[in-house]
Write a structure and sequence with these properties.
The complex is a heterodimer of chains A (509) and B (376). Chain A is mainly alpha-helical. Helices cover 72% and strands 6% of the residues of chain A. Chain A is built from 16 helices and eight strands. Chain A has helices at residues 2-45, 48-81, 84-118, 125-154, 173-177, 180-210, 215-250, 252-259, 298-304, 314-319, 329-351, 355-367, 387-416, 424-450, 463-466, 472-503; strands spanning 159-162, 167-170, 265-266, 270-276, 289-295, 310-311, 455-457, 461-462. In chain A, the strands form four sheets. In chain A, strands 1-2 form a two-stranded antiparallel ribbon. In chain A, strands 3-6 form a two-stranded antiparallel ribbon. In chain A, a hairpin with a 4-residue loop joins strand 1 (159-162) and strand 2 (167-170). Chain A is globular. With 376 residues, chain B is mainly alpha-helical. Chain B has one domain (2-369). Helices cover 68% and strands 4% of the residues of chain B. A two-stranded antiparallel sheet of chain B has the order 1-2. In chain B, helix 11 (257-280) packs antiparallel against helix 12 (285-305). Classes of the chains: A mainly alpha (509), B mainly alpha (376). Chains A and B meet through helix 2, helix 3, strand 2 and helix 16 of A and helix 4, helix 5, helix 6, strand 2 and helix 13 of B.
């Protein structure tokens, strides 16, 4: 019991730090490019107003960047402090992208950040512009490496299990780096950052227009923000489609939970809107939804690129569906237990230097390795993630994504038509869509991470095996300290940010 | 290219890379050292601003090096990463807290509506520079003094003792390195300020600070060396069996004359740099200081892990002790990471160029009061 509570506290702490961290990362990813575009216009036109616009957004960028750095540090070290078993079991693969992120991305970001901020009068305009672009490239490069690491947890490839060291070892670096899951996750995550950056810029510009302040600044910012937002939100849809396609291929249980799909079907539809039936249990006859609107064929089409494809539901994946070649979770649990037993027999043989027996047991182990992680479970139902959280997070994310496209299109249209200032409802909508961007991004991460449960590494290591042996009291205390500190810093960040926005690009004049 | 190296050579190469990173990080601790001087060195707000801004353009490099250090340990010696971070939970978390508060303090300190007030952010910087540095010193000292842990059959760590790392604070010898590092960081900061800030009045006070802190630094540093070279260490044989060896680290010094040379040169450089700073107010003294710190700290790390030495001794289970051979990543990963490490010189050169471009003109009062320039 104590072990379980301890795992839950570690999960809570990781979730807390990840959620806080991702309040700041998207703006860094998106705003850095928007600033770079603005500075490019300044350097190309030599119009001083563009310099002021660039510097205003850069000021807000710095306030956000500082706290993003602070929360990011924790995430890296938590793999060791709270997930020590994980760190050994897969550190040989997982550590590399984190180290590479440091070498290739963080130094680029931090070095050129200093030039970008303090270098206006110290270096030439071209070198300064290059530095601004390099901050953007560095931030996005950092996102690439961390998502390679995350993608690998969702779809572990490019490695083999070494029974002597009881860990997974890397076999092919390029399989890990160019994993289709990692690429899809990277593109989807950075594009969500671009959209949030754009929402931030048009939302704040709309506020200035509503206050009838800084009109030239606001309109110019709107053009850049809305164009960037429209392009990137369309790309967000495409990368989202690819991400969901990858989930269908590699994490069918997660897909079924995201869609609330209990019984698999061919020509499956996608739920555009639905309210889950809270009394529904796996295997009973109750209806899945209290109410729903379904778009026919779409799930088969999006998940498998084929209208006729069969999409496995939770019951097919838990209890098996022989007709469609889906093994039951019980079969995989049994197979996993054979793998664990073989590992233990291998060790015994190794202790006695019995090389023949070692070979035999290793062969059994490798034959059952694909089910290794299942061996740690007792009941088939344990492989199902929290359904309601996965379902609602997914649908909130998708609905908001659609709304952002409309918002950017309308904003761009009216800005180019030169009467955006009279469109009060649109300006208010833009302003109030800033928090919606963050909600969508956090919801996306909840789908990715809660939907992956009960796995730390899909099919290989359950979350409860990954955690450090650590009394829950310790983690409860550190959780509280993190919650307190991050909340205090978040309040500081928001207050400073609001004040700087109120002061405006011309120092309040 | 790296494929041709033996597994042992790769492990040694990565220990050397980590040692070098440790040396560079120790040099960059001048930022922390400078933060501990913010309450004592300046006599007015402008002087304080000059110090904060001088450090504020560099702090991220130190922070990034710490992150890279963590990542490189994870990739190259994952068993150490898992054992030490998971085991000595509270020491590492305490260090992390000290660095979280640093990351926001420069940017938020002087901003209107900053919620916690300027003083709080300055206290954060002080905590980072004092407690943060000393805790790092204690954590590093456990590479020599050891820790109480066991590894089970899955190589999962079981920490003995409920303090989860804080017990290292009750080992008096660990304070030798902790305090030596603390004063060294302040000394390095003093020399950095001489080179980076143009203010005669500050220079006078910096010189007397340097003189005082040299006297504080030396006993702890010499004490650390004496402890290190007189103490037992853990060695291991070709089968990986760990055993206790008297004067292990002194043996290592004799067995690796190149490391001994690095250590001696490093110490001499540091002492010459301090002389140049104190007696001549020499603005280039920081460069010699930097070279000296990198050389000597790298040498200390090399003594900890090379020449068949267990670099993380277990006090409760001798055979659980970590060595570069039992704690490392696979040969494949070390090769892959070695190729990536070839980019490090490129990274160092753009940092050096950016640093050069930004520091061509020293910080002065005029810059601090110029509304057209961005400052903290």
């Amino acid at each position: 019991m104590n072990e379980l509570a301890s795992v839950d506290w570690s999960r809570a702490q990781f979730a807390l730090t990840a959620i806080y961290h991702f309040l700041f990362v998207p703006l860094t990813l998106g705003l850095s490019f928007i600033i770079a575009i603005m500075e490019t216009i300044y350097v190309a036109t030599n119009d001083h107003a563009w310099k002021k616009i660039t510097q205003f957004w850069m000021g807000l960028f710095a306030i956000n960047f500082a706290i993003g750095v602070a929360t990011g540090l924790i995430m890296e070290f938590e793999f060791g402090t709270n997930w020590a078993n994980y760190a050994w079991f897969v550190g040989d693969i997982f550590g590399a992208p984190l180290a590479i992120e440091g070498i290739l991305a963080f130094f680029m970001e931090s070095t050129f950040f200093a030039v970008m901020f303090f270098g206006w009068n110290k270096v030439g305009p071209k070198f300064h512009l290059l530095s601004t672009w390099l901050v953007a490239v560095g931030s996005n490069l950092s996102a690439f490496w961390i998502l390679v690491a995350n993608g690998w947890m969702q779809y572990p490839i490019g490695m083999h299990f070494n029974p002597a060291s009881a860990r997974n070892e890397m076999e092919n670096f390029f399989d890990v780096v160019f994993s289709p899951v990692a690429i899809a996750k990277f593109l989807h995550t950075v594009s969500s950052g671009y959209v949030i950056g754009a929402l931030f810029v048009i939302g704040i510009s709309a506020w200035f227009l509503l206050k009838n302040r800084e009109v030239l600044f606001a309109k110019r910012s709107l053009v850049v923000g809305a164009s960037f937002g429209l392009l990137t939100s369309l790309f967000l849809t495409i990368s989202g489609d690819e991400s969901a396609y990858q989930v269908a291929q590699h994490q069918p249980v997660k897909l079924a939970a995201m869609e609330g799909l209990y019984k698999g079907e061919s020509r499956a539809g996608i739920i555009a809107f639905g309210i889950l039936n809270p009394d529904k249990r796996l295997g009973d006859d109750a209806h899945e939804f209290l109410g729903d609107i379904e778009l026919p064929y779409m799930l088969s089409l999006l998940g498998y690129r084929n209208v006729d494809a069969f999409v496995g539901g939770l019951e097919d994946l838990v209890y098996g569906n022989a007709a469609h070649g889906l093994p039951s979770a019980q079969e995989r649990i049994d197979s996993g237990k054979i793998a664990l037993k073989a590992l233990s027999d291998f060790r015994a043989a190794k202790a006695q230097n019995d090389t023949e027996a070692m070979k035999t047991h290793e062969a059994i182990l490798q034959a059952h390795m694909k089910d290794f992680g299942y061996g740690y479970f007792e009941k088939p139902e344990q492989i199902v993630p929290p359904i309601a959280l996965s379902f609602y997070s997914f649908h909130i994310m998708v609905s908001l994504g659609m709304w952002f496209i409309v918002l950017f299109a309308l904003t761009l249209f009216f800005t180019l038509k030169r009467d955006v200032q009279t469109q009060k409802p649109l300006l208010y909508a833009a302003l109030w869509s800033i928090p919606l961007g963050y909600i969508a991004a956090e919801a996306g991460w909840i789908v990715a991470e809660v939907g992956r449960q009960p796995w730390a590494i899909q099919d290989l290591m359950p979350t409860h095996m990954a955690a450090t042996h650590l009394g829950s009291g310790n983690i409860a205390l550190s959780f509280s300290l993190f919650a307190l500190l991050f909340t205090a810093l978040l309040i500081a960040e928001i207050k400073i940010m609001l004040k700087q926005i109120a002061i405006g690009p011309n120092g309040g004049h | 290219m790296f494929e041709a190296l033996s597994y042992l050579h790769l492990q040694q190469l990565w220990w050397i890379i980590l040692s070098l990173l440790g040396g560079i990080f120790a040099f960059l601790l001048f930022i922390q050292g400078g933060q501990t001087l913010l309450f004592s060195l300046p006599e007015n707000e402008t002087e304080k601003s000059m110090l904060v801004n001088s450090l504020g353009r560099k702090w991220e490099l130190g922070f990034t090096t710490l992150v890279l250090f963590g990542g490189a340990i994870f990739a190259a010696f994952p068993l150490f990463y898992a054992t030490s971070f998971g085991g000595a939970y509270w020491v590492w978390l305490a260090i992390l807290f000290c660095f979280i508060v640093q990351a926001v303090s420069y940017e938020y300190r002087k901003k209107p509506h900053n919620f916690l007030g300027q003083k709080t952010y300055e206290v954060f910087l002080y905590l980072n520079g004092s407690l943060g540095v000393m805790l790092i010193g204690v954590a590093l000292s456990t590479l020599f003094s050891g820790a109480s842990f066991r590894l089970d059959e899955n190589f999962f760590v079981r920490w003995e003792g409920s303090l989860r790392g804080l017990e290292a604070l009750f080992v008096p010898q660990n304070y030798l390195l902790a305090l030596a590092l603390f004063f060294l960081a302040r000394l390095c900061a003093g020399l950095y300020f001489l080179s980076n800030i143009d203010s005669q009045t500050l220079h006078v006070r910096i010189r007397s600070m340097l003189l005082r802190n040299t006297f504080y630094f030396l006993p702890f540093f010499l004490g650390f060396l004496a402890w290190l070279f007189l103490k037992d260490g853990y060695g291991y044989d070709d089968n990986g069996v760990v055993f206790i060896v008297a004067f292990k680290y002194f043996d290592n010094l004799l067995a690796m004359p190149f490391v001994a040379l690095m250590l001696v040169l490093g110490v001499v450089f540091v002492l010459i740099a301090l002389y140049l700073g104190i007696a001549k107010t020499h603005w280039q003294a920081i460069k010699l200081m930097g070279a000296g710190i990198v050389l000597s700290v790298t040498a200390v790390f090399l003594l900890a892990g090379l020449n068949k030495t267990a670099f993380y001794p277990s006090l409760s289970s001798l055979q659980s002790s970590l060595t570069i051979q039992n704690a490392s990543g696979s040969s494949y990963t070390l090769v892959a990471m070695s190729y990536v490490a070839l980019l490090i010189p490129l990274v160092l050169s753009y940092i050096a160029y950016a640093w050069y471009a930004m520091d061509r003109k020293r910080i002065d009062e005029a810059e601090m009061t110029d509304p057209a320039s961005h400052h903290y």
